[in-house]
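Forwarding the complex inputs:
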Amino acid sequence: QSVLTQSPSASGTPGQRVTISCSGSSSNIGSNYVFWYQRLPGTAPKPLIYKNYQRPSGVPDRFSGSKSGTSASLAISGLRSEDEADYYCAAWDDSLSGWVFGGGTKLAVL
Amino acid sequence: QVHLQQWGAGLLKPSENLSLTCVVYGGSFSGHYWSWIRQPPGEGLEWIGEINHSGSTNYNPSLKSRVTMLEDTSKNQFSLNLTSVTAADTAMYYCAGIDGDSGIFNVWGQGTLVTVSS
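Prediction (whole assembly, two chains):
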């Protein structure tokens, strides 16, 4: 059971905008930054968003992050087939003194 | 550019100890906090623990009693030891590093599938 809660799946058609949500608590998302990772099949996770909304170099601006209270969202606009992947949110948890992750959302591009 | 290469035994019997090593290429060992993260089949990511360049460690409370992480700065590598494994420890294990500026796990090893089976 993951500490952060994500919907198991999401889907969209090419060109659409999809949103993936992540819910936590006051000890993690509520008081710390949120990070997002993309995991393509058979590969290690890739950093996508850091400190709630910032993108590492090389990540397209189609990807955006936001946070409100104890929840966060990842939005992908102009959906492409290569966006089909698993997406994970993460945050530091002050109660556990460690990193916690969401269970992942599998995005299908129909 | 920092690159991680990890290795270790992939098949263990219950009660054996898991041992994995990760070597850091192409960058400063002291510039990152180094972690181990695992993903059981069909489940989400689970942080196991971290070690910094000074050797200070921080472990997931759920695994703390069985985990030891060590570093060897002379070889730019760090290791994970998990004792008395069970089938519940079957997972893909990754080593990863956090960039001090962004706070994100910006570098990952290729992953090692560890299966615990009698």
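The longest strand of chain B covers residues 91-99.
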